[in-house]
Specification:
Blueprint: H1 2-36, E1 40-47, E2 51-54, E3 57-65, E4 68-72, E5 77-81, E6 91-92, E7 97-101, H2 104-131, H3 136-144, H4 161-169, H5 172-186, E8 190-192, E9 197-202, E10 209-210, E11 215-221, E12 225-232, H6 233-242, E13 244-248, E14 254-268, E15 273-279, E16 281-282, E17 293-298, E18 303-310, E19 318-323, E20 326-331, E21 333-338, E22 341-345, E23 352-354, E24 366-371
Parallel strand pairs: 1-24
Antiparallel strand pairs: 1-23, 2-18, 3-12, 3-17, 4-11, 5-7, 5-10, 6-9, 7-8, 9-11, 12-15, 13-14, 13-17, 14-15, 14-16, 18-22, 19-20, 21-22
Helix pairs in contact: 2-3, 2-5
Length: 373
């Protein structure tokens, strides 16, 4: 009997110990789980108050010339300087002589041909006086105006087919046309400025031997500048309706105005914007420079009910609001921006906006909003 009691006691003790350790372990797990799980979180919010606002909308771009072209010659020869020294940044006026090709050989060839034409005329003058006495004066005048150092005078008009055949048969008219062709070629030895502008870059210096089509320099038109502005798709129609913009420099000073010149037909998939090209007309006594960064400002572009929210609250036109202690995602429309704030439409008055865009944590059972002012 005593032995049985001892065995029963030992078994009971062992079972009690096992049950105790199981209960103790479960309590530790519960305590650990309770300590490790934070079911409540405080988040910064903004209580929405929509207002009627009239915005200044901005876009940013860079000034560039409407026209840039390469200086090149159609002929081969030794490059010589023109009326000005061509270096990057040099400004020039319309019709200024920028470069020329050494034309000494061409000049002597042309002068010799003109002298040959004069000899042809001298040889036929006697026959003209005999056969076409009424036309003698005009041919004498033509002969006297043939100057080896100048351009040929206008060729006299024929008064009859017989006169035309006579002059042509003597080779006068053919030689005249050959010389006019050389005179036209002579103009290709000069490069005159096609506009008021400035030198962008230099590729060859005077003294170089130039081949036909070789780039000598790059020039740009300074009277006709433009700015490319990326316009958000949502605002494009309103920019288009407004038509004109005011340009500001990096110090936020107004420097000129501009109007739409052309619009691309493609949307930039990365920025969801449309490239719009504006002219830029500087204000009096204001100098604008190619490559200068400018801000385009449009006054009173939008007059709608909207609210200003931090840019950190918006991601891909989505925001979170706090409702019944949980996050709720909503879509908004961005109407404009200012520094680190966005003007959006789509939220209701008294909505509690989450100021930092974050996906909700499933372990958090309750979110409590703290309003920032």
């Amino acid at each position: 009997m005593k032995k049985n009691q001892i065995i029963l006691f030992v078994v009971t003790l062992i079972l009690s110990g096992i049950i105790y350790f199981i209960i103790l372990n479960n309590k530790k797990e519960e305590i650990k789980e309770t300590k490790g799980e934070n079911t409540t979180k405080y988040v910064p919010i903004q209580v929405i108050q929509n207002q009627e606002r009239s915005l200044k909308t901005y876009s940013y771009g860079q000034i560039s010339p409407y026209t840039e072209l390469d200086v090149a010659f159609e002929i081969q020869g030794k490059l010589e300087k023109g009326a000005i020294v061509m270096k990057p940044g040099t400004r020039f006026k319309f019709n200024s002589l920028l470069y020329k090709i050494n034309s000494e050989e061409m000049y002597f060839t042309l002068s010799a041909r003109k002298a040959q034409l004069a000899n042809l005329m001298i040889n036929v003058m006697a026959e003209i006086e005999l056969d076409y006495p009424t036309e003698t004066e005009k041919w004498n005048s033509f002969l006297e105006r043939i100057n080896p150092a100048g351009f040929l005078p206008k060729f006299p008009q024929f008064q009859s087919d017989k006169e035309k055949m006579f002059i042509t048969a003597k080779g006068v008219y053919t030689e005249y046309l050959n010389i006019k062709s050389l005179e036209a070629r002579m103009t290709k030895y000069l490069f005159l400025a096609p506009f008021n502008g400035f030198v962008v870059d230099i590729y060859a210096e005077p003294g170089s031997i130039i081949n036909p089509g070789s780039r000598v320099a790059k020039i740009a038109n300074s009277d006709n500048m433009e700015v490319k502005l990326p316009i958000p798709v949502d605002l494009f129609e309103k920019f288009k309706e407004k038509g004109s913009v005011k340009f500001l420099n990096s110090e936020n000073e107004a420097i000129g105005t501009g109007t739409i010149k052309r619009v691309t037909n493609l949307i930039n998939q990365n920025t969801q914007s449309i490239d719009v090209y504006y002219s830029i007309k500087p204000y009096k006594n204001v100098t604008i420079i190619s490559g200068q960064h400018v801000t385009a400002e449009i006054d009173n572009l939008i007059s709608e009910s909207m609210c200003a929210v931090p840019s950190t609250a918006v991601k891909k036109n989505k925001v979170f609001i706090l409702k019944n202690s949980q996050f709720e995602k909503m879509s908004v429309k961005i109407l404009g921006s200012k520094q680190d704030s966005l003007f959006v439409d789509g939220l209701n008055n008294q909505d509690t906006l989450l100021l930092e865009y974050n996906e909700p944590n499933k372990k958090i059972k309750k979110y409590i909003g703290i309003e920032r002012h």
